[in-house]
Every structure is written in structure tokens, then in C-alpha cells.
Amino acid sequence: MSPSVPLQEMIRAIRSARTQCEERGVIQRECAAIRAQFRQADNGGRSHNLAKLLYVHMLGYPAHFGQMECVRMIASPRYSEKRVGYLGAMMLLDEKQDASLLITNSIKNDLSHSNQYVQSLALCTLACMGSAEMCRDLAPEIDRLLRASNSYIKKKAALCAVHIVRKVHELGELFVPAARSLLSEKNHGVLHGAVVLIIELCEQNPETLERFRKTVPDLVQIMKGLVLSGYSPEHDVAGISDPFLQVRILRLLRILGRNNEGASDSMNDLLAQVATNTDSTKTVGNAVLYETVLTVLDIKSESGLRVLAVNILGRFLLNNDRNIRYIAMTSLQKIVGTDHNAVQRHRGTIVDCLKDQDASVKRRALELSLALVSASNIRSMMKELLLFLSSCPPELRAHAASGIFNAAERYAPSQRWHIDTMLHVLITAGGDVRDETVPNLIQLITNASELHCYTVHKLYRALLLDISQQSLVQVACWCIGEYGDLLLKGDCQETEPVQVTEDDALDALETVLQSHMSSPATRGFALTATMKLSTRITDNVDRIRSIVSIYGSCIDVELQQRAVEYNALFRKYDHMRAAVLERMPVIEKNSPGHTNGESTGEAVKDVPTAKMKQGEPLLLQQPANQVCDLLDLLGGSEETLQPGPAVDCLVSGLSVHAAGTAGGDLLDLLGGFEPAELSPAPQVLAYDKGGVTLTLSCEKQSDTGLTVTLTASNSSDSDLSSFTLQAAVPKSVQLHMKAPSGDSLPARGTAKVTQMVVLNNPNKVNLKMRVRVSYTRQGSPFQDTVQIDSFPGLDAAGQ
């Protein structure tokens, strides 16, 4: 291909290339020819070559080597070259390129050019790629052009000023006077540029916003002129006079009237006029109406005007264009909280949008329908939502189910209706509900004591029909386990009687246990329900025992643990089974001092704590409020326990009030865990002289380790100071003395000093210890030594 081919020929050659490789070859040859011609001093076809390079750039190939040519062509006096040069600068340069700084002076010169089209080229280029430095340098020139007499230049200058304000916010004050004066122009292009500039200035500076609020009457007059003007071929679009300018003015009015009652009052009549006179059969009219609605809803408008705006959005819902329906529902979603009654009038149309084929419209309709649910329409709305849930796409099912649950919890007319609704959702979309749905429904069923029979029958039937919905199966298993006796009676008045035998109930649970669709959590529910049925039926206990024993070797650790515990309950603690598996109490949700139905320490108050004296037994009594039901599962068990070295047996603010046989059996559910009898650590008197006594207690830590606690007291009438204890043991024994609790002993035994000594006897020699007692009494030092040959509670041979 010849290097001098025209642009059309190059385009034709590129398009005729059959492969990408052939296309790259054509472009590489042409780019090489363009480079060679750029290097020539006298090149008459510079604009021709740059135009071809710009086409290459549009195809995505590198064209950066043409940047300097753009700079040279911008400086050319010929308009044809300037035009291509400025176009190339806008495409090949940006504010990050150093070459962009080279055209600043050229742009400044062209802004003062006598030809309006050259000025226009400079304005467009500055507005497109002007950097912050360029904007600061050329802002005075733009302000001068905003006051020019040429409407064509003023329109371009206004849009260029918008770019400058966005780049350098502090330059906004420079354009405020000129922007306000542009509102008196008759040319629609200038007005449009002025409104866009004022919008930018108001959004950037709150003080400027207050100044432009005075222009609201002028804007209202301009808008009225557009609405009431007759046919104008120059500005008419589908029967609407300059809809682009109308939309911009409405957007500016919305900004000026926001949070300002005076400005809002002055534009209320205009907005009502636009809302009633604009044709809504054309897309252009709908654009103006939508902007009017947004303005009405955003300013402090009258209530009647807001209702009119909501009605316009209601008409949008009937439009065949899905985009219009979508933006209508998006707007209604934002105002449903403030104008709930007005939006409720269009409830039927909104619900019909749930049947739309478009997924986005469907989602918006669902969100808006859920927001419209109230106590007065809960039944009718829930019927529509449940119908939608049965046919909605999978990606909306979880959201729909969650919204239905929340609405039912807030506005349920009765407990039975609430339970029926939740069960309907579980049957329809049980696999898409949230994790907290199962405990919430169980809590609801537990509290509705009069509906236990009705609920267990309904869940049993649902379980027979479908075991694929895991949430439904879990709730059904729980209810069958808790209220199996009601299921077997079959005398439920709320539903038609169905005779269910013990084998039928066990068959249903066994089917869940054996189903490949059941999750480990669901099998856990079913196994526990099976175990609970052992106390609610009489003839099939052996079958339950065999079912439970099978899962003692299950691969799932959680299920295996449950089965092992239940087997132990059958074998060793059958006398406790009825008490352990009795019916769950009513679950109180979010009540103080309770978490998931269990009492916390904060709820227990005024529990008497018995103080233990050394060597005296403590009678542990069962509290009346059954705080320690777990420790005294069978109740009524009172045993005397000997206190240990701890002071008051307090754990986390709760007293231990019950133990004994029943509690020990429960702790020994898996076998091998016999409860240790609490007994005081044995103490001996090691030293007693001059009112000073020293007692010794021992605690064996390991086969060779021993902790000795020395406790000193003073029963005399004078205080002791500088009290110290020193100890010595055989060389083969390792000794470590910890810090004492104090160094003074007050008179008459009001306080004690304790010292812990850690001994390690690896050779297990005969243990002996010599203790030196030192103190000062009334200024006189005293020192004495005592030898300890026996240690209480230890086998002498072992130590």
C-alpha cells in the first residue's frame, strides 16, 4: 500500500483484512509512513496524516508518537490544521502527559482569536482535558468569555467553566456573577449552560447555594415560559418545548428548594402546572414528569402536591416501558416511609408488577410490596406474596422468604395464622430460609400451647409429603419428639382427625435418618426426636433402643456422640430417662437474664451463700427458684458435702446448692466419671509459742510434687512486724518459696499471713522440713525454729 493513500483508502484496506495479523501488517506499514512524513520539515499533508493516526488510535493501536504533531498543528495559523490538532489533543493527550502543558499558551491565544470557531476549539479542548494548572492559568479568560456578546461562545464558555469548577473548587467564586447574569439570556443553549454551571456551583459551596436561592423566581419564569410556549420548531421535541432545558431547571429547583420552605413555596404552583400540563404518552414527557416528581418529593412541598407526584409514579407503573416501571418503583421505595397512605393506593398495581418477566422489576416490586404490608392488609398482601414465592426465581426466594417472616412476625393477626404462614414458607422454600428460622419457629410453637396438637399434626403430614426441605424437616422432627403423645392421641379439634400409630411416627423419623437428602443437623433432630418418643410411647421402646444403637458407630461425630449418650441413658440410667427427656419448658425470647431459654448469672439474685467454717459440714439446700435444676435433675435430693480449701464454693456468682446421687449420675452419663467428694484439706498445728501459731496444709500436685501452705496467726495483744518464714529441706529435694501474703500480724488474730512452699522430691526420700520464724514485737526481735517431720494427707513411704 502506498504511504500517500488517503484516509478512505486506509480504512478500506484495514476492513478488507481477513485476519488480525494482516490488519496489524497494514497498520504497521501505514504508521511507519506517517512517522517518516512527521519527520519531514515541510509536510503539506500533516492534517491528513494525523487524521489517519487518530483512526488507528480508535482501533486500539498505539499512536502516542503523534502527540507532538498535535502540539505543532494547534500552533498552526490554518483553521483546518488547528481543528485536527485540537481533536488529536483531546484524544491523545490528558492532564498526566507533559505534552499537555505545551498547548496552554496556544489555547490562551486562541481564546482571544477573532474567529468564534477557533475560540470554540480552544474552549472544547480545555473543557475536555484541562489540568488543574491549566484551569488556574486560563480561568480569567473563561470568565471574560462568559460576558461576551456572542451566544455561541458564551454557551461553550459556560460548559468549560463547569470543568474548571470541578477541577479547582476555589475558582467557583470567580464565575458566580457571570453565571447569574446568564439567566437573563434568551438563547436556550446559553441558558442550559448557565443552569449546569449554577448546579455545579451550588453543589460545591453551601454559601453559593444561599446566594442563588434568590434566583428562584427567575427560574420559575423561565420554566413557565417553556411550559406555556407554543410550538417552536427550533426547540420542540415530540411536542415538548426543549425538554433538556426543562429537566435541568427542575434539577436546579430541587437543589435550591431542598430544606428551604420559602424557596419551596415559590415553586409549588409551577410544579403543579408542569405535572398537569405535560404529556405523559411520550418518553420525552415522562422524563420531564419524572424530574418533576423528584423535585416535589425532595423539597418542602404541599401534601396535595406530594399526592399528585405519587399518582404520577402510579401511572408510570402502567407504562409498557420496563425502564419507566423500574424507576417508578425505585422512587416509591424511597418515599413509602413518609407517604405510606399515598403509596398504598397503588398497591394493586405494584403487586401486579410481581408477575413481570424482568428480574429487576420483579425485585423492586417485591421490596416495595414488603414495605407496604401493614396490620390492615396483612392477610391480602400475604396471600399475594405467598403466591409469588411459589413461582419466583431462585435468586429472589431467600429475600422473599425473609421478608414474609419479618412481616408475619410484626403484623400476625393470630398465632395460628402466624404458624400457618411460616409453615407454608417452609413447605414452599424451606431450603432458602435463613438459619435462625428454625429456632424462631420452634419458639413460636412452644409459646402457643393451645396449638401444639394442631401444629404437630400439620407438620407430620408435611413430613410425609416432602423430606427435601431441611428446615421444615427439622421443625417437624422437633415437634414430633416434643408432642408425640398429642400426635398419637389423634383427637385434634382444629384439623381433621388422623389416626397415627407409634410405628407410623417412628417410620417417619427413621425415613429422615436414612434419607440421603438429610443433613447432619437434620439427622440430629430426628435422632433426638426418636429418643424423646421413648418416654411418650409404650410398645416400641425396644425399637427405639435399636435405632439409637445403630448410630453409636456413625461416621458423623456429633451424631455418634448423641447416640452414645442416649445408649448410656438406656443402659445405666434408665430410671432418669423420663426426667431427662421430659417436655421442654416455654422458651422466652429476648427476655432479661435469658439466652436461648437458659438462665444467666444476671438473672439470679439473692441466692443465699452459706459460709463454711473449717472442719464443719455444710448442708447444701436446693433453691426454690430451681436455678440448679441441672445438678438436681430429679429434685428433692439433699446431701451434706464437706467443704474444700476454697472459701465459699462460688462460681460466676452462683452458689453450688445441689449435688448428690442424681447430679453425680448425670455427670457420669458416659461412665467413669464419679463425682469426687468435697473434703477439707487436712491441717496440722506445726508451731504454737507466745501467741503465734503456724498451721500447715499440703496438696499433692504430682507423684513427686507437693505444695505446702503455711498459715500464721497472732492471738496475743500486741502487733507483730517484720514477720518472715524461712524453710530448709534435704539436698535432694528442690524447694521454691513464693511471696508471702504480708509481713505483719495484727493482734488478736484479726488477720493471717500465708506462705506457699513448692517442693519437688524426685528421689522420693523421707521428707523433712525445718522452718525458721522471725518477727519483731514492740521493738524487740524474736527468732525461733521448728522442724516438721510429717506432712498431713501424704503417705510417708511415697514421699
Give a description of the structure:
The chain is an alpha+beta fold. 53% of the residues lie in helices and 10% in strands. It has a 5-stranded antiparallel β-sheet, with no helix packed on it. Strands 12-15-16 form a 3-stranded antiparallel β-sheet, with no helix packed on it. Strands 1-2 form a two-stranded antiparallel ribbon. Mean pLDDT is 81; it is low at 591-678 and 795-799.
Give a quick rundown of the structure:
One of its GO terms (cellular component) is AP-1 adaptor complex. With 799 residues, the chain is α+β, with helices and mostly antiparallel strands. The longest helix is centred in the N-terminal third of the chain and has 19 residues, at 20-38.
How much of the sequence lies in strands comes to: 5-15%
Structural class: alpha+beta
Task: Please list the strands of the largest sheet in the order they lie side by side.
Answer: 9-10-11-14-13
Computed CA radius of gyration, to the nearest angstrom:
45 Å
Poorly predicted segments: 591-678, 795-799
The number of helical runs is 34
- Mean pLDDT rating: 81
The 3D shape can be described as extended
Q: How can the largest sheet be summarized?
A: 5 strands, antiparallel
Terminal CA distance = 108 Å
Instruction: Classify the helix fraction into a percent range.
Output: 40-55%
Number of strands: 16
Features:
799 residues, alpha+beta, five-stranded antiparallel sheet, three-stranded antiparallel sheet, 34 helices, 10% strand
Topology overview:
Blueprint: H1 7-15, H2 20-38, H3 46-58, H4 67-74, H5 79-92, H6 104-111, H7 116-129, H8 132-146, H9 151-167, H10 172-182, H11 188-204, H12 206-212, H13 216-228, E1 236-237, E2 240-241, H14 243-257, H15 261-277, H16 283-298, H17 303-316, H18 322-335, H19 340-344, H20 347-352, H21 359-372, H22 378-391, H23 394-411, H24 415-429, H25 437-447, H26 452-465, H27 470-482, H28 484-489, H29 502-514, H30 520-533, H31 541-550, H32 557-571, H33 577-580, E3 594-595, E4 598-599, E5 618-619, E6 640-641, E7 650-651, E8 654-655, H34 660-667, E9 683-689, E10 692-700, E11 705-714, E12 720-728, E13 734-737, E14 752-760, E15 769-777, E16 780-788
Antiparallel strand pairs: 1-2, 3-4, 5-6, 7-8, 9-10, 10-11, 11-14, 12-15, 13-14, 15-16
Helix pairs in contact: 1-2, 2-3, 3-5, 4-5, 5-7, 6-7, 7-9, 8-9, 8-10, 9-11, 10-11, 11-12, 11-14, 13-14, 13-15, 14-16, 15-16, 15-17, 16-17, 16-18, 17-18, 18-21, 21-23, 22-23, 22-24, 23-24, 25-27, 26-27, 27-30, 29-30, 30-31, 30-32, 31-32
